Amino acid sequence: MYGTYYRNGPGLQVDNPRYRRHTFDGDGMVLSLAFRNGRAYFRNRFVRTDGFVKEQAAGRPLFRNAFTRGAADGFPLFNPFDLSFKNVANTGVVLWAGGLYALWEGGLPYAMNPRSLETLGETRMGGALRGSNFGGHYKVVEEADGSNRLVGFSTASSFGGSSITFYEFAEDGSLLHETTHPLQGVSLAFIHDMTVSEHYYIFVLSAVDFDAAKFVTSYLLSQCSVAECLTFNPAKSSWVVLVPRPGRPSGRVLQPKQLEMTPCFSFHLSNAFEVERDPQPGNPQLPSQPRQTAPLVVVDTLPWQEVSFSTTQYTYGPEYYWGRSRSHLVRVVCDPDAGTATSQQLMRRAAEFCVNDPRVNSRQHRIIWVGCDMVDHAKAFGHLQAIARLEIDPRVGLRKGAGTDALSNPEGVSEGVSLDVWYPGDRCFPGEPMFVPRPGSSREGDGWLLVVVHNAATQKAEVNILDAQNLSGGPLAVIHLPHRLPSGLHGSWSSEFMGPEDEPGVGVGASPTWQELGTIRAL
């Protein structure tokens, strides 16, 4: 294994009686784990955002956050119409065109040194970002000519209507395409993730409403956060939205489509791919002509059956793990011409943090890895305590009667899906898995899976390396870190080694001078 694993997440929490921050509002901490010659080099650093630096200097919270109630100092009254929130830079991380970027959907990226993890400052990605934010999620897509593109997005919200803008960056960091799509009737756009197929950008508009009355009453009195003003509405439809990508080699002219689906809240999507229709009898299409019909679009996603942003680490109990506040892995088949989106659940277990082999992004995939629970019950569920590998027949969801599968087989998966599960232990809690391709192999899924696990028994972190094709076989190796790690969110893998430069004494057992343990002030 040769390369570098990066992971971002809310590393610094505020847990005092006056001002308890929501987990999602913790300051971003990026870690790197660089592999070379059978050795692994760990380092971590907090993202020195403007807000982080000022709060560390003051020794107390100074800025409000999107998911946390009240003013920064715990005072009950504040200006609710000041919607400026601290950029926590805590969601995603990507190495692109020589730069490392810490991402959070409510603000601009922060550039970091990819080797030392030193924060370099807020960036507009070479002037490409003209708005106030850039999403915490992205996709890297390999084009037909072998080049890669970074596809990301930003949102703009207003009471007169919102919009989403997609960006495609070349390998040298230059902006290739910028596409803005209006979101009619959406006053506050909460779009956390997106995916991409050959011809479309794809995202989900969830079944949520912005409660204006709650905003000017409960929010004003510090009885809810601004995120809690987004309320799930089971009577409202969700929509999967397909926005045409510009400049595709096929030359096809396609229209944006908004397709109704079952009410849900969508945090995360995996991959998407297209299935071409056969020409109708008597109406052949010559290979030299652009196709006149839109392809079917297959999207694998993790919709929540319902969601409440009032639930925090301080408020939920055992009753939380019964009912509909859970997410499942679901395949959605979109027919742009018919205007339909058909959903089929792939696995009974509650699941989150889905990943696929990034080399097949935008193209047909067969394998998905996902965090899941061990309860495997229709109503009861638990923490994510296992990692599952699903191998999915590409025809799943396309057969006649798709969407009616009752998941009644012993493994609790849909017909055409096989399941392999790794369970690290009763008091072990894995985070998002990360796929690492095997050098020299182009076969989908051939490589390793990196999984950072919190071991509650030892209060330390373990990095497990598994055969990505055989999870139940257990770890091939385990890196035992001498300390715990806060729960992380999302990561990325680079084939570049970004560990320490060759220096005398640097290696196994060497004391890392860059570790930040004990140097950050608790607020």
From TrEMBL:
Segments crossing the lipid bilayer: none
InterPro entries hit by this protein: Carotenoid_Oase
Keyword Iron included in the entry's annotation: yes
Pfam families xrefs: RPE65
Binding of Fe cation, residues: H137, H192, H268, H490
Obligatory cofactor(s): Fe(2+)
Name the UniProt record assigns to this protein: Carotenoid oxygenase
